[in-house]
Amino acid sequence: MDVNDQNNIDDEQSTQPNLSSTSNDIQINQKQFTSLNSKQQAMTTKINGGGATDDDNVGDPSIINQSTNAKIESIQLKPPSCKMSSNLPPHHHIRGDDTHELENTSGADNFKSSRRSYYSDSSDRTKLPIHQRIVAYLRVKSRLLSCSLYFLVIFLSLAVLFSIAIVIYHLLTIYYHRQTISIDTDSCVPMKVTLCQKFNVQYAYTKLPNRFGQTDQSIINDKLTSTYSTILGTKCYTLLPLFLCSQLVPRCNSSGHAVPMCKQVCKESIHRCSFFLDIFDIEWPDEMDCDKLPDSNDPDICVGNRRSMELNQLANRHICKENGFRCDHTRCIPPNWKCDGYMDCNDSMDEKHCNECRDDQFYCSHGVCINRSNICDGKPDCPDGRDERQCFRLSDSMGLNGQGKLQVWNPILGKWDEMCGEDWQVPEQSEQVCRLLGYQSSNETRLQDETSDLPGQRQFHHHQRSPKPLRFSSLLNRQEDKCRDSDTSVHIKCHHFECGRSSHFHQRRRRNTRIVGGEESYPGKWPWLVSFHGGPAEVFFCAGVLISEWWVLTAAHCIGTKNNTSGWTINLGVTRRTSSPLFVRQRQVSKLIKHPGFQMSIDYYYSDDIALVLLKDKVEFDEFLRPVCLPANSSVEVASGTKCMVIGWGKKIHDDYADYQSAIHEVEVPIVTHWKCIQWYAKQLPYHPIPTTMVCAGYEQGKKDACQGDSGGPLLCNNQDQSWFVAGIVSWGINCAQPQLPGIYTNVPKYLKWIQTTTSKHGKPISMDTS
């Protein structure tokens, strides 16, 4: 209808009788509701691109409800639409003031046109009222958030499913290898060898008889345990148990045939572990040609290849277990060794970035910083005394006797400076330096002018020791006060390095319980303990004790039947077995000399269990590397009940396959009389009397003892001057720390003459002055 018709209708309505205000309000509201709904439907249809609406249905509440329900169902069944329209999304909430403004326009057509333009023209967005723009912005952000959450849920679900699939794959693989092979019961039997099951060789059936004709699995297990438990205990190769088991109880495949080991497993086992065959006096089960073995990832063709590849991948990732700290890109150290004041890594990374100390400060450990001027001032300021370590040295040599130009550490410049000879007090200051370096006395001092082509020099011979030496700090203070323009150097000869004494800076330390029956030792406390390593991977297997610049004393069973010196590595000055700090020295072996009375025993009840190892190159002594004393004479007998110390890296429990300790541990044990030791052991070994060349030490109730891995290490007792001498060498025992089964040690005083004769025979005699 046109405008005139609308006006006539309004006039006719105005002539009708007046109704109640309530009735009028209802009619007006119904009219407005119907009009608004019809206009809103038209607007929505045009915005969404739809065709013309059916006039009969405009304003019908049932139709609106059906449409709304359909939209709700579609929202519930479909994921959110993430396609962002360029136009402003429609908004169906109409404020009263907006409606009023639009209804004042002239005519319905104009009204519809205005509403269409108001909602659909994107170019006029900025003309929208502020509340409309805010609502529109929030709706867009809400849709983006819904889409993001939707895709995140999908991604996490896929990740979980993928992880579950991997776990199921590995479980099925293990199940297949161990359980699900279709076996020929006439050919394959369940594998029951305990040692192979303990090392999880990952197959459950074996083919018997094996190639040696053996069918009894209990006999095979006894053979493996008695012969190879020692070499397995070294852990020279992770797949060594598979190498041994696959020969004596080979895997049986689905066809009922024995499966050999893979070529790579064979080669690696022989390469890494053959060093220990002579030491433990054993042989491989049979001579094998690894090149003739198959090499395949199919477990029905050969065993071990897949596991070998997994180990190589782990090694290449440089991953440390149990939150260990990666050291030198090749080793792992315990996490509590980081920032503890001791350099365990060659590159010192374990002691870097530990605390924010100033440039003029020095980092001690555990968050402590001190002024650099306090380094080497004669007073330990760090909790561990590291600020007073290695402050002086002699340039030429520091062996049994030391000599050379005296040098002092400059903590500011980080280098060694020559100690100036200006106003040098002879012999007092020379005596003080020698004692600080570990020597008993100084017997010569030479002051030399370094600027002249023919340097002038003054030489002094010392005939007596100074009764009142100067304070340590004065040596460093004088370097600052008197040596600014001096060119005079100090050359000193020191005499008789004192054995059996650790640095005086290691005397005050707190202790932490580390192992059952013992305590962890502090770096530098036992500077004469050395570790033996063998094979290409330098696997630790025994200990020894340094007795001179050239010689190491150890147990003969640590050498076994081995005469070849290749493959041996000896670490000296080491406290933490897995560390390689700057002050650790490595030496190769020149000679291996066992006592002629020693014989290997399958039961490990040794006698004459003592040996000497001659180093290829002599060592220089320092704070972390010093010799222990030998007994004063061959008649020395340690009284029963005397408390002596056992030190080493031995296992904390009796288990052939447990790990050795990473740090030196110490345990105090009393000497047991020989007759009581025989009486106690007679209950277990009635046919193996303990010879008098052995000494026993331990408690009647057990609980404290040496253990596997301590072999070759020393039993240390005190001299009257409180220095340590080696009274025994760890030899054997029954299990570890058992009641009335003390440890058995080689009685070193009984072999003192043999030590002196042997060292002299090989041109490197040990003077009794060192004992």
TrEMBL record:
Spell out the reaction equation it catalyses: Preferential cleavage: Arg-|-Xaa, Lys-|-Xaa
Q: Which residues form the Peptidase S1 domain?
A: 515-760
Q: Its GO biological process terms? A: proteolysis
Listed EC numbers: 3.4.21.10
| Enzyme class, UniProt record, top EC level | hydrolase
Q: Which cysteines are joined by disulfide bonds?
A: 266-290, 320-332, 327-345, 339-354, 357-369, 364-382, 376-391
A Pfam family of this chain: Ldl_recept_a
List the transmembrane segments.
149-172
Residue ranges, annotated region (Disordered): 1-64, 90-123, 445-467
Keywords from UniProt, A to Z, are: Disulfide bond, Hydrolase, Membrane, Protease, Serine protease, Transmembrane, Transmembrane helix
Q: Where in the cell is it found?
A: Cell membrane
What sequence ranges are listed for the domain FZ? 183-305
Matching entries from PANTHER family are given as: ACROSIN, ACROSIN-RELATED
Record's protein name: Acrosin
